[in-house]
Write a structure and sequence with these properties.
Aminopeptidase, alpha+beta, 7 strands, 4-stranded antiparallel beta sheet, single chain, 3-stranded antiparallel beta sheet
């Protein structure tokens, strides 16, 4: 497995955008839209997971996430691993890469928004807040210190 931290100038950008657009997770289309419409700036990145030439997952590091009007930043978002690759702790590898990158650009903590139960706790995140998402469900905001 290879992990790539990419920007719009990277050759993998279009392939990852297409993968996100067509993946089984409905949020993939939103990521593809952001990738296609200059939704990433400054230090923000998309992180791609690949198995040889095949993209098999992704996440992002960004200033904001889906919960408006909160002071938390930066976020790991859009975390997805393709069905054929699940069960191999690849989400953890994406999270670790994201945290290493964020540390390299000066951050000492990271946030994540999710409605999953007992998923991100196993990666050392803990709930610090709960907020209503624009689509009407309560989401948990997680935080983890970056060592």
């Amino acid at each position: 497995m290879n992990i790539h931290t990419i920007t719009p100038s990277d050759e993998m950008w279009e392939s990852l955008k297409n993968y996100a657009e067509n993946c089984s997770w409905r949020a993939g289309k939103a990521l593809a839209y952001h990738m296609d419409n200059n939704g990433f700036s400054d230090w923000e990145r998309v992180i791609a997971l690949s198995d040889n030439a095949n993209i098999c997952g992704f996440c992002t590091v960004s200033k904001t996430d889906c919960i408006p009007n909160v002071a938390y930043t930066p976020y790991i978002g859009y975390l997805f691993v393709g069905e054929n690759y699940r069960g191999n702790r690849l989400s953890g590898k994406l999270i670790q890469c994201a945290m290493e990158y964020l540390k390299s650009v000066g951050f000492n903590r990271v946030y994540l928004v999710s409605d999953h139960i007992n998923l991100y706790e196993r990666y050392g995140f803990h709930i610090i807040d709960r907020k209503m998402a624009p689509w009407g469900t309560e989401e948990k905001i997680y935080m983890k210190e970056i060592n």
